[in-house]
Structure formats: C-alpha cells, structure tokens
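Bit of a strange request maybe. I'm writing a small parser for structure token strings and I need a real example to test against, not something I typed by hand. Could someone generate the tokens for this chain?
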Amino acid sequence: MIRNERQYRISRAQARKFAEALDNFEPAAGSDPRLAQIEKQALRSQLDDLRDEIGAYERTKSSDLNVFHLDVLQAAGEVLTMARTAAGLSQRGLAEEAGIKEQQIQRYEAEDYQSASVRQIDKISRAIKRAFARQHSGADG
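Reply from user aminoacidic:
Good idea to test on real output. This should exercise your parser:
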C-alpha cells in the first residue's frame, strides 16, 4: 500500500523502470528460453503490482472521504491512511491537525495502527474529518 506522496513518486519511478526493462528485454545469448520467459514474467508481475498500487493510491486521493467509514471501533489502518490521503493531508499535516508528532503518525501507518489506542485512533479520525470538512467548505480553518 502506498501511504504518502514520497512513496507514490518512488513507485511511479520504479514502474517506469520496470516498463523500460520489459520493453528492452533481451534474453542472454544461449540462455534457456524458459528461463528468459520466467524472467520476463517476473518483470511483468512486478510492474502489474506497482500499477495496481499506484492506481489504488490515485483513486483514493481523488475520492470523497464519505466513502470511508471512520467508526473508531471498526477503523482499520488502511482505511485511516486512505482517509488521510482523500482529505488531502500529508502525514505531517495530519500530525499537526491531531496534535501528534509526525514520527508517531509514520509509526502508526507503518504498522497499520496496530499499536494505537482507541483514544489515539479517535483523535486521528476526528482530525481527518475536520480537515476534510475544511477542504470541502473552502474554509482555511
């Protein structure tokens, strides 16, 4: 799962490299054709996986936050990360909005919020909702 703009940029660059490698793929002279086919399939698989993740991130980023259910007791880490992205918040922006250190947000997202308390998840989901409401009301806060 792509969690932020930095990972998004890196994933796009990697996808371009895999696409180039596929376009320019030449099996080694005298190599087993089956091995060459497996190598090519591995490149294609990696490219497909990256494209899927990139597409999911782009769809999430352009989504309406209302498609996400931020019920504190049922919120999964991926949903919170997707909601943050849909609200137009970076990890730093969410940290500022929630009054939490950016490094803590990074840790929570890296582990899908497994160590976050219900109180912290509630605080974060409320911060995301506020940011989303501001974004769609045109208010600056």
